[in-house]
Every structure is written in structure tokens, then in C-alpha cells.
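User: Can you fold this complex?
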Amino acid sequence: MNYMKEVAVVGVGKTPFGAFAARDLRSLAVEAVQNALSDAGIGPDGVQAFYLGNFAGPSFTGQSHLAPYVAGAAGLTGIPATRYEAACASSGAAFHSAWQAVAHGVYETVVVCGVEKMTCQPTARVAQILAMAGDVAAEGIPGATFPAIFAMIARRHMHQYGTTREHLAHVAVKNHANGATNPYAHLKKIITLEQALAGKPIAEPLTLYDCSLVSDGAAAVVISSRAGAVKVLACAQTSDHVALADKADITHLPSVQSAARQAYAMARLTPKDIDFAEVHDCFTIAEILAVEELGFCKKGEGGPWSQAQPMPINRSGGLKSKGHPVGATGVAQIADVTLQIRGQATGWQLTKADIGLAQNLGGSGATSVVTILGKGN
Amino acid sequence: MTVYSETLVWSPPAELAALAPYQLLLVAQPDGPRLLGRTVPGERLEIGDNVAIDSVVDGVHLFRKNS
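Assistant: Here's the predicted assembly.
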């Protein structure tokens, strides 16, 4: 595809991720949007469209029609305001559509926000809502929760490639250590390998330490065809079957591989050119699959590769430690990559951060979005 | 039919709390799509085990070892 305009991320705004009993969905989203506008140095009148990524606001909060509900409160009235839903890739998908519109010259400047308010529901209800991102009839009725789905992926990966519990635990230990230095992270708690290995079982072989967090939070970016400090070098979105049983090889995420290959081709880069990545570690096994599909290591070698840590993955703490308000995650990854490239990741800044990649996953791989960002003007 | 993957679920959805821990199975058929179901209570199966459908309860396939 031939995109006529370069697109830059010209503003980022986030809320901390966590459990905020006193905050509602709209107040979180508005805070992120206003922070992003302030960071971009523009007011609401400089924005031509509003894109909202949100997975299950109506189920979690009882409020629907969320895009104008948020946009109006943020002062963004009189412009298109649309909600995107693609499970945990909701705001990645919103970003992809927004980027296409700006790249094609439909708009000059737009805001993309991701938000989820999850902790207002009890854990069992949260699990029930999250299960709606799978095939409810085929997976929900037998009791295949998302931890169970990724546990079956982990079991098969262990069987086919010799991945071990220790490999999974090393991902958790690393992401917890990273999140402990990120002031916006939900869980700033360092854990040991022994703790990770001895965690409460959730769905074997996964323990509590292999699972991402249930969080509230929002993130927003302003993107524009105006020049900016961080350029969007590529963005690609692909899809696959929703049900795990319909996938030919459950240890493979073809949607991630396909999106990554498209993104590398678009950016004229290879995996070796990427300095760091924020990947979708909804479960530790998902990070191991991600680094394989993104081409950072060979298929099947993600376990030992992750243990060796040859490049920075999830320096923010990832979904495991930073938190996973599902609809916010895709834009939060892009915001974090942007901060790293700008040199503004205070307390968790990498020494080399010229080109970064964000990988956002919906369900067990039914939606994938891969975005590559680099230094701009 | 053989077990393609499995997990023992300790943290179930509320409606299946009484069954926990239950084993969830992804079963490969020689000439058909994979089936997602559970192991009959009291049995544990591993990847590669030969299995048969024991019963279908509330639309869910329950598998047992095919000895």
C-alpha cells in the first residue's frame, strides 16, 4: 500500500494503571485525552476526529455509546467519534484506523484513546466478560477461560519445543522488575524466580504470576501529518480464527507473524533493526510466542531467548506488571514506545531507543496490530 | 482421537466452580476438526493419550482414556 503522508505521534497522555475505586471510565479517558492534547500543545479545536478503543465498557460499567460520551466530556464535540472493539487489541485497532485516515489525508490531526474500567466488577464477573473475547459457545461453555486457553498453548509449546516452567517464570520476574521502575505501573513489586515458580495455580502450567492484571486505566495519543519527534514508520493489522480449536498449530500466532512482516516491509526494516519492543504479555507464554512471531528469535526458541534477554522487551513492565486495562493496552504501548524514543521514560529510560515496536493482541490471536515507531523531526 | 493439549483449571468461571479443578482438553480427530471438552471426573490425561467420547453433558464433550 502506498501512503501519501508521513504520520507523527505529536502528543501522549496516560493515567496510572491500577485499581481506582473512585474513578469512572469517563474520568480516566478524559484525563488521558487532556494530557495528550496538552503534550501536543493543541486544543480541542485542532482535532478532526476521535477514535476510542474499548473492549467491554457497556458490560463493565453499563454505559454504551462511549466514544461521544468521552469525547464530549473532553471538549471534542462536532467531530466524528467512534468506538473500536477488538478484544484486548481494541485500541491497537483504533490506532490502525486513525493512522490510515491521517496517512491518506482524510484528517490532519486526530486523537486515539484507549480505556477500560474493570475493577468495578467482582473477579468472577470480570472473567465472564473477558471470556466474551473468545468463542462463547465453543470455549465458554466447557469452561475455557482465557488463562485456560493460554495454558493449553503453553502446554503444547512445552511439548513441541521443550519450553519449561522456568522459561515462563523468567518472563514474569523480568516484567515485574521492569514495572517496579515505572511510576505509572499497576504493580511495582519485584518477585524472585522461586516466587514465580511457586505461585498459586490458575490453569496448569500457568500460575498467578504468569497472568496479567485486572486494571483500570486510559492512554491517549495525538497523531498528525504535521512533523513530530516520533514518526509512525509502519502499522499493520491482521486477523485469525477466534476459537483455539480452529487454529492449525496453537503454538503459532499467524496474525502476529503476518502483521509483523507487513510492518517490517512497510518500514523497510528487519527485526534486527528494532531496538526495543512492548509486546502483549497477557500471559507469560504470550510474550514467548510474540518474540518468535516478531522474528526476534526462531520458532520454538522463545523460551531460552526470553531467559537470556538479548534485547529489551516490555521495559514498561508489560501487561504483567504495568497492568492490563484491556481497551487501553494498545495505545498505552504506543505511548510508552513514544516516551522511550523521546528520551522521556523517566526512571525506566533505555540507553538506545531509536526504533521501537508495539505488538497488541486480541483474544488468542484473532486480532493483531503491530506498530513500528522511530525518531522523527 | 488423541489429546493435542490440556490444562488443569483451578480458577474456573463461577458456573463451573463446583467442578474445579477440572481438566480441559483439546482433542485431535483423525478426520475432523479439533474438539474442546473436559476429562471425565477422576481421570487425568496427557498430550498424546488416545481418548474416546464418554458422554456429552450440556453440550460439552467429556473424554476418557481409550484403553
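Chain B is about 0% helix and 50% strand. The longest strand of chain B covers residues 2-9.
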